[in-house]
Please model this.
Amino acid sequence: MWVITMKVKKILSLLIISLISISVLGCSNIRENKVKSNSTKYKIYEIKDVEFYDEGITQAIEEVGVFNNMTDASKKYKICEDILNNENKDKVTVVVKFKIENNNDFTITNYTSVRPFVTNTGEVGDLIEDNIYDVNIDAKESNEGYAVFNLVKTTVDELKNLKMWWIVGHNNGTDNYDDDYCNDIKFNIELK
Model:
């Protein structure tokens, strides 16, 4: 009787292990397929440690969304919905979300101008919009904004990094235009 009980326990143990293995493999395949199906439509990257600090302002890139077309991008980002038109609706769309922090003790009027970026494929992004944030930022406050680009030669899966130029200026908290601050910043953004 004891031998039969041991055999039954072994069989049950093997059966349970088999079921767990099948469940784990089945779940991993489902997750893998979801990633594959989204890889050609869009990718959203959370960006860390891409920032620049100078003259009491921190400029940081927070997120990059890469979409197969602007129509899909408009479902995620309101800015794309606002600028969507027939000319750019079917183009690969890159949305760069940035944050501006005013670490000064005074309100600044910040002027940010995003220049076209260059991709790892050598394509220059066509800037659609870059002025979606509040330019007046109170002392010790922050604000977020977006820059939207179109690509015509690079696919969602081909885009691995971009080099972005950004001109930043502010009025140093004074009405005297002679002491305004301006700097040309370069960001290298790895998408992984």
